[in-house]
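Tokenised fold entry reproduced for everyone:
>
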Amino acid sequence: MRILPAAQRQDVMVAVRAKLAASGFQYLCDSQARVMSGEEEGVFGWLTVNKDLGRLKQGEIHNLHDTVGALDMGGASTQITFKPLASPDLLANLFPVNLGQQVAEDVYTHSFLHFGENEAQRRANRLVALTAAVAAGQTVANPCYLAGYTFQYEDLATGIVYNMAGSG
């Protein structure tokens, strides 16, 4: 959702909010359905990993230095989140984590938009197509895919459709 143009993202959210309002769920205001930031996504993933590993237990005082970092590669973005070993000099990318009265510390998190799997694949396909310098509709050998695999790739910047054939 974060890579969509603002108007398109807004249209999707209007439809989602309308569906929720008519669903019977306790949906009271628009802020209950929103696109979360990449940093929030990173922190929620980090919390999940550490909870699943038993590093965060309900009812215990925690030291976040016993946690592990999390690297989450999604479709459109990649997030990295961890508790720094020492207090950083800069406040950039620090995200406050408050878990009741047990934990109130900052973790480092950063979201790299356009560096998820789908976006990396799109950029690689575009580079292969541009490097091959073939006309629209012609087949482009793509070493990123196994031989025998074929698909169509549309360059979103130009609208040109290429036939890709794996050559790896």
User: Anything to note?
Assistant: The first helix runs from residue 6 to 21.
